[in-house]
Known about the structure:
Elements: E1 9-12, E2 15-18, H1 29-33, E3 43-44, E4 47-48, H2 51-65, H3 73-87
Antiparallel strand pairs: 1-2, 3-4
Amino acid sequence: MNQLANQRVVYLNGEIVPESEALIPFRDRGFRYGDAVFDMTRTFGHRIFRLQEHIDRFYKSLRYTQIDSGISPAKMIAITEEVLERNLHLLEADDDY
């Protein structure tokens, strides 16, 4: 974790990696077929805002596009919370993601 001390981390393909190493191959399904799904969350006071609603909307979009994330909604929530926890030390008291 030392090398990660001063940079954000992200979850990509089953692993939490430094943001600088999060590269999406040009052969990624979203680029090849144009059928990607994403949803963004943000924090207020270092707490994720309406995470359950974001996850519900995200999984509804996945079902609509018939994309299987391979991760349950509960696991996605846990991953999201872990990524935030690992990045919080980089924020100032009045900053948010």
